[in-house]
Amino acid sequence: MDMKIQILGTGCPKCKQLYENAEKAAKESGIGCEIEKVEDIQEITNMGVMMTPALVVNGEIKSVGKVVNVEDIKKLIK
């Protein structure tokens, strides 16, 4: 099964940076995954997230309110 990474955020610069970092981490790790942007504020709050950007891996919230760097994302998705 492929991994699913979601970036929760309304499209602010931090959210875009987190998305780029997640793409780079997945590519460098050689992991097949789907990366999805979730920009609907209702959907974000329904997931229990009150601060963005947030990083979700396979439905599990891994980070909230900060831009996680590429190396740390690699550790989270291994």
Please explain how this structure is put together.
The chain has 78 residues and is of the alpha+beta class. It has one domain: Glutaredoxin, CATH 3.40.30. It is 40% helix and 27% strand. It is built from 3 helices and 4 strands, in the order βαβαββα. It has a 4-stranded mixed beta sheet. α1 crosses α3. The longest helix has 17 residues.
Summarize the structure.
The chain is of the alpha+beta class.
Pattern of helices and strands = EHEHEEH
**What's the overall geometry?**
globular
Count, helices = 3
CATH architecture grouping: 3-Layer(aba) Sandwich
Class by SSE composition: alpha+beta
Q: State the end-to-end distance.
A: 14 Å
Instruction: State the name of the first-level CATH class.
Output: Alpha Beta
Strand count, sense and barrel status of the largest sheet are: 4 strands, mixed
Number of domains: 1
Low-confidence stretches: none
- The strand line-up of the biggest sheet is 2-1-3-4
At the fourth level of CATH, the homologous superfamily is Glutaredoxin
Return Rg in Å: 11 Å
Taken as a percent bin, the fraction of beta residues is: 25-35%
- Measured as a percent range, the helix fraction is 25-40%
Q: Count the E strands.
A: 4
| Average of pLDDT | 95
CATH T-level topology: Glutaredoxin
